[in-house]
Structures are given as C-alpha cells and as structure tokens.
Amino acid sequence: MGLEWEQVIVHAADPASLGQWWAEALGWVVVYSSDDEYEIRPAPDRMPGLDFVRLDEAKKSKSRLHLDFRPDDQEAEVARLLAHGAQRVDIGQGEQSWVVLADPEGNEFCVLGQRSQ
C-alpha cells in the first residue's frame, strides 16, 4: 500500500485572493482555479501543494495546523512577507528564535531561524 501526501487544504473566505497571495509569497504556480477552489504547487508536477477551498465561516481562534518555513535569511524574509501583506501575531509564543506571522485571512505561519549545525 502506498500513500502520497498531495496537499494541505486551507479554508478561505476568498480562495483565489488568498491562494494568489501564497503563490506570490512562495513563488509557486497555480495548477487549478475555480470560484470555490485555488490550488498551488511548487511546480505543476511537484507535490505537496496548498489547496485553498471556500469556507464562509470566519476563523474563530488560533489555527490548529500551521506551516513553518526556514529561510536563508530570517530577517530579510520576514521583512519581505510583511511588505507583501503578512502581519506579526502573538499567539503566546514569548521570546523564540522563530517569528509568527499571519496571512491576509489570519492564518498563522512561522518563519524559523537558522538551522543549528
């Protein structure tokens, strides 16, 4: 039995807008788009991807699942994402080596520091 991880589903009030924001933030490509769904991947044939699916219910609390990213330069990447429309958020993390940000719909994600050798 084989099992392949294909995508992470992200509920969104506006799938196309949020999906396009993430496509630009990550430099990924759009592989599917409709009124209710917007799927992006690192490359058309590369998985896993992110699939933004319409959910008319507003986000109510801290996300139970979030994405972590490890950039080459944390400070530069945080600045780039903030300029792209991300916001800093406090989810009770205190002083840490990572930075917690949220996308335009409030979904939290972390920009990690340098990997320890």
TrEMBL record:
Pfam families: Glyoxalase_6
InterPro entries in UniProt: Glyas_Bleomycin-R_OHBP_Dase, Glyoxalase_6, VOC_core
Domain of life (superkingdom): Bacteria
Domain VOC positions: 4-114
Protein name, UniProt field: VOC family protein
Organism expressing this protein natively: Kribbella turkmenica
Native organism taxonomy: Bacteria, Bacillati, Actinomycetota, Actinomycetes, Propionibacteriales
